[in-house]
Design brief:
single chain; alpha/beta; Aminopeptidase; Alpha-Beta Plaits; 9 helices; about 35% helix
Length: about 375
C-alpha cells in the first residue's frame, strides 16, 4: 500500500495539486483549489487489493504472490487520477475546492473511519461527497452504464468469529473426546436457519461462513475449531437480532454437547445510504456525460458493503455503480480471474470530475 500511495501522491504533485500523505496511516489526499471561492466536494477513491492469487494472464497482472486487485480498485485509482488531471487542467473553471481522497483499507481494514478520524472531512470543510464502483456488481448494468439509487444502495456488514472448544482425541475413539468438528457442523446449520426462520421473508439479510479451520490429520479429533463469517442487513434491528441469536445458538449447541465456545465481533460498516437531493444532481451530470439511455435507476440494493458509508453518514452525497463487464459472462468480484472492461474508465473519471466542476452551480 505504501508504494501505491507514493505513486498516487507523486502524480498529484506532478500536476500541481497540493498533497497530504499519511492520512489515516497510508491515505493520500489531494487538494485542488479553484480560481473562484466556493464549497468543497470530496471525491473518494479506494486503493487496496485482496489476498487472492491472480490467475489472469495479462501483461499487467499483480507482481506480488497472493495479492491482486480482484474488485476493481485498480480501476478506481485510474478513474481518480484521471479526474484529478482533468480538474487540474481546468483549474480556472473550478469554483470551490475538490478534495481527492485516495483511501486504503476498504476491504475490512477500517480505512474510511481512520481517514475521517484523522480529520479529512473536518479539516477541509467538506460539504458533499461522491464515489463509485466499477465492475459487474449489479446484473442490471451493461458496460458503460451508470447505476444510481436514491436510497440504500449497499448493506450494513458485521464480521464475527467463533471458537468451538472441545476435547481432542483419537479418531477411532470419539467417545473419549468432545468433537468440535461435528459440533461446528451443527452450529453452522442452525445459524443458517436464523435467516430462513427468524428474519421476515421481505427483510434482506445474509449470513455467510467464510472460514473454518480445525484438525491436522484424518485420525485426530482436534481440541477446537475456528469459524469466521459475516452478516449483511439494512436495518440496525436486524443486525442486533442476528448477532444476539448467533451467540445464543452457538452457546446452546456447545452446551448440549459439553463443549465450550468463544464469540467475538469485528469490523462493522453501516448501510450505504445516498442523499436523494445530491443523487438527483449527480444523475443530471451522468445523463449529460453518458446519455440518458445509459443511466439506470437500480431496482434492487446490493448485499455487498462499502466503507464509503462512513463518509455518507457525515456529509450528503452519492455512490454510483459503473458497469465494466458483462454480468452474465464475466468472472465475479473477488475471483482470481476478475477483470475490467477498461474502455469505460474515461467515463468514471469524467463522472467524478464533472460532478466536482458542476457542484458550485448546484449550490446557488
Amino acid at each position: 500500500m505504501e508504494e501505491t500511495a507514493e505513486f498516487v501522491a507523486s502524480r498529484l504533485e506532478e500536476w500541481g495539486i497540493e498533497v497530504e500523505r499519511g492520512v489515516g496511516k497510508t491515505g493520500v489526499v489531494g487538494i485542488l483549489r479553484g480560481q473562484v471561492p466556493g464549497p468543497t466536494i470530496a471525491i473518494r477513491v479506494d486503493m487496496d487489493a485482496l489476498p487472492i492469487q491472480e490467475e489472469n494472464t495479462h501483461d499487467f497482472v499483480s507482481m506480488y504472490p497472493g495479492k491482486m486487485h480482484a474488485c476493481g480498485h485498480d480501476g478506481h485509482i485510474a478513474m481518480g487520477l484521471g479526474a484529478a488531471k482533468l480538474l487540474a487542467q481546468a483549474r480556472q473553471d473550478l469554483a470551490g475546492t475538490a478534495v481527492l481522497i485516495f483511501q486504503p483499507g476498504e476491504e475490512g481494514q477500517g480505512g474510511a473511519p481512520a481517514m475521517i478520524a484523522d480529520g479529512v472531512l473536518r479539516r477541509h470543510k467538506v460539504k458533499a461527497f461522491v464515489a463509485g464502483h466499477l465492475g459487474v456488481l449489479s446484473p442490471e448494468l451493461a458496460s458503460g452504464q451508470v447505476g444510481i439509487s436514491f436510497r440504500s444502495l449497499m448493506a450494513a456488514v458485521t464480521t464475527f468469529q467463533a471458537r468451538v472448544i472441545g476435547k481432542g482425541g483419537h479418531g477411532a475413539q470419539p467417545q473419549d473426546a468432545i468433537d468440535p468438528i461435528v459440533i461446528s457442523a451443527e452450529v453452522i446449520g442452525a445459524w443458517q436457519r436464523l435467516i430462513s426462520r427468524e428474519i421476515p421473508p421481505l427483510e434482506p439479510a445474509v449470513l455467510t461462513i467464510g472460514q473454518i479451520h480445525g484438525g491436522s490429520s484424518h485420525n485426530i479429533i482436534p481440541n477446537e475449531v475456528f469459524l469466521q463469517g459475516t452478516i449483511r442487513y439494512f436495518r440496525p434491528a436486524v443486525g442486533k437480532l442476528l448477532l444476539a441469536r448467533l451467540e445464543e445458538v452457538l452457546a446452546g449447541t456447545c452446551r448440549s454437547w459439553k463443549a465450550g465456545y468463544r464469540f467475538e465481533t469485528d469490523q462493522a460498516y453501516p448501510p450505504l445510504v445516498n442523499d436523494p437531493s445530491f443523487t438527483q444532481f449527480f444523475s443530471e451530470v451522468a445523463v449529460e456525460l453518458a446519455g440518458r439511455q445509459n443511466v439506470q435507476m437500480l431496482e434492487f440494493p446490493l448485499m455487498v458493503s462499502e466503507d464509503a458509508s462512513f463518509f455518507l453518514d457525515k456529509v450528503p452525497g452519492t455512490y454510483f455503480l459503473l458497469g465494466a463487464g458483462d454480468p452474465a459472462t464475466s468472472y465475479p468480484h473477488h475471483h482470481p480471474r476478475f477483470d475490467l472492461d477498461e474502455s469505460v474508465l474515461w467515463l468514471g473519471a469524467a463522472l467524478l470530475a464533472g460532478t466536482a466542476r458542476r457542484f458550485k452551480s448546484r449550490e446557488k
